[in-house]
Amino acid sequence: MAEEPQTTEEPEAVQDAGPEAAAEAAPEVPAAASAPVEVVAPKERRARARAAKAAKRPAGTPLTPEERHAERAETRSRKAATRRVERQRARTKAKAAPSATPIAAREHAPRVQKTRQGVVVSDKADKTITVRIDVARRHRRYEKIVRTSNTLHAHDERNDAHVGDTVIVRESRPLSRTKRWRLVEVVERAR
Q1: Residue 107: in which H helix or E strand, if any?
Q2: What is the C-alpha to C-alpha distance for residues 69 and 59, in angstroms, rounded to an integer?
Q3: What is the pTM of this model?
Q4: Backbone phi, psi, residue 87, to 5°
Q5: Whole-angstrom distance, CA of residue 165 vs CA of residue 186
Q6: Domain 109-188 classification at class level
Q7: 112: burial class by Cβ within 10 Å (0-12, 13-18, 19+)?
Q8: Distance, C-alpha 122 to centroid of its chain
Q9: Is the distance from CB of 11 to CB of 24 less than 8 angstroms?
Q10: H or E segment at 42?
Q11: How many angstroms separate the CA atoms of 169 and 180, rounded?
């Protein structure tokens, strides 16, 4: 006399909903009652994978070219699927981020001349001014504000700018050995 195993019936809603809902509806088992999960180091995991792979075929029998090709194709398709998921995740992340193009990226586009704002430190030469460009930026690692400056020579056709003026200069073709900029406008006059 074989006894039939007793089955506990789940509510209809849980049965129709699928395995996800069934997992949610099932009472939670305490962690102590479940089997302990073995934590394996990556090196040990690779060693076990190699051993399992070697156990699949008899010792001393090399793979045929077709088997090697099939194994390689399977590995490549698995890696491609992983890459596809990562790329999709990166795309959605990029779409969520604001798409403001940084100034530096726009500035170095083809045929776009750079412009700089600075202070005139010398106007002694004829039709030439020396401009100091001050840059304050945050250090990438230490987060401290780092201030640097560099000077450049700009062409001033009308000798319009004088020492202390704040000016805007634009990149141009080489005008002399040191001049590669032209004066665009004087923003603020020195007092």
Answers
A1: helix 103-107
A2: 20
A3: 0.45
A4: -65, -40
A5: 7
A6: mainly beta
A7: exposed
A8: 43
A9: no
A10: helix 42-56
A11: 10
Q: Map residue 116 onto helix, strand or coil.
A: strand
3 state SS of 180: strand
Q: Are 165 and 120 in contact (CB under 8 A)?
A: yes
Which residue's entry shows tokens 């603020």?
A: 188
The 10s digit of each residue's pLDDT in 173-182 is 999 999 999 9
Domain assignments of the chain as residue spans, ordered by start: 63-96, 109-188
Token pair 């049965």: residue: 15
**Residues 137-162: tens digit of each pLDDT:** 999 999 999 999 999 999 999 999 99
User: What is the distance between the alpha carbons of residues 63 and 179, in angstroms, rounded to a whole number?
Assistant: 69
User: If DSSP states are collapsed to H, E and C, what string results for 60-106?
Assistant: CCCCCHHHHHHHHHHHHHHHHHHHHHHHHHHHHHHHHCCCCCCHHHH
Q: How many CB atoms lie within 10 A of CB 120?
A: 22
Residue type, 127: K
